[in-house]
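cron nightly-structures :: item 1 of 1
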Amino acid sequence: MVWKPQLSRLSCVLVSAILSITVFPATAQVKVGAPAPSFTGTDSNGKTESLDQFHGKYVVLEWHNQGCPYTKKHYTSGNMQSLQREWTGKGVIWLTVISSAPGQQGYVTASQENSYLGQMHAAPTSVLLDPQGKIGHLYDARTTPQMVVIDPAGKVIYDGAIDDRPTPDVSDIKGARNYLNEALSSALAGKPVATPYTRPYGCSVKYAE
């Protein structure tokens, strides 16, 4: 009978490992330094937006899911909105991307998203609705949140987590190392990005099955 508890403990370890892989998957580092894939999408106001129209500007892509605890962490605290205001105020284009498929967690209609933006006082440049996951798959987006920074020449200079605290706990925001801030601050100052890639954390992007 001794083997049963041992097996149970082993099962718990295996389950925990599987869950951690799901929550914290890695993306391909080869994207950093390469040209950002071009895309066209429709925003929550019905306007067509393309990456090409922002050539010559820094662009942030933020993968989003309203129902994800890791996303909620940065929105209920006001952290994401603060970042949006800070960087768009410096001329950065901030595109929030929602790649959740219909029927999946995080999927929203345009009107639902606009209501959410007002409720949360969010301030991205635009929110791109990507229910077919076309933009998400172009960038191999795995988690919400996941952040990508594109420079004025159209190259990816950062891809990964928003910070180094991979938890849904709001209290962890204070004192966190914010990789997005570091990347943008360095780039706008004409310096190379010291940490161009990190392992993103959050909920898996809810693509169509």
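cron nightly-structures :: done
DSSP finds six helices and nine strands in the chain.
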